[in-house]
Amino acid sequence: MGSDRPGALGSTPTAPRRVPPGQRYVHGWPVSHYGPVPRFRPERWNLRVFGATAAGDERTWTFDEFTALPHTTVVADLHCATGPTSTDHEWFGIAATTVLDLAPPSPDVTHVMAWAEYGYAANLRLGDFTAPETLLATHHNGELLTAEHGFPLRLVVPHLYGYKSPKWLRGIEYLTEDRRGFWEERGYHNAGDPWKEQRYSHQEREGEGPAL
């Protein structure tokens, strides 16, 4: 389902200085996820923004409508919670702030739930979703995303662990209180900051996540 499952292959002895503590540098971009790769059916695909919207209704885009929105490029690293870090990924897509501008949340929204195919979900603090490098990616390193890496759309939140960046994105739900996503319900940290080594739920401090 949805995002890179913890774990990857291959390491090198030379790691960039920006690799977070407890991580190991790996070459390339290993494919890792939970569940099958969905088939893209453009005539059925849409992206929904729903929940606590400012207007009280939901906004939807078809694939052609969404990919016609203004695009941006972000170069960032990818950190998996069980240790692998790969660097200098060039992501091309629609900034999360563009989505927020077109479908604003209500003032009391504090979190979002990113929904992907097969019911996969990852929860994020609103501040993480609105971060400058967060985007909804359609391309990687100048090419369309492959199906295994999230085509047609993948949320990319590069300052958090990879399980917070769901593949095969289908919806953004605005939340007025936090709710755990797929991996967060299964023992992974609710916040997921690699620089704080927030890997597992048993590390959570008071206020870092709803009760399990």
Q: How many helix segments?
A: 3
Provide mean pLDDT, rounded: 91
Per the principal axes of the C-alpha atoms, what is the gross shape? globular
Query: What class would the helix/strand composition place it in?
Result: mainly beta
Spatial separation of the terminal alpha carbons: 21 Å
Strand content: 25-35%
The helical percent reads under 10%
Could you characterize the architecture of this molecule?
This protein is mainly β and 212 residues long. The chain contains three helices and eleven strands; from the N terminus they run E-E-E-H-E-E-H-E-E-H-E-E-E-E. Strands 1, 4, 5, 8, 9 and 10 form a six-stranded mixed β-sheet that branches. A hairpin with a 4-residue loop joins strand 6 (111-116) and strand 7 (121-125). The protein is globular and about 40 Å long.
Fold topology:
Blueprint: E1 24-25, E2 46-51, E3 59-62, H1 63-67, E4 72-79, E5 84-95, H2 96-102, E6 111-116, E7 121-125, H3 126-129, E8 135-140, E9 143-144, E10 154-156, E11 169-175
Parallel strand pairs: 1-5, 2-11
Antiparallel strand pairs: 2-3, 4-5, 5-8, 6-7, 6-11, 8-9, 8-10
Short characterization:
This protein has 212 residues and is mainly β.
Which terms summarize this structure?
globular; 5-stranded mixed β-sheet; 6-stranded mixed β-sheet; 11 strands; single chain; 212 residues; mainly beta; 3 helices
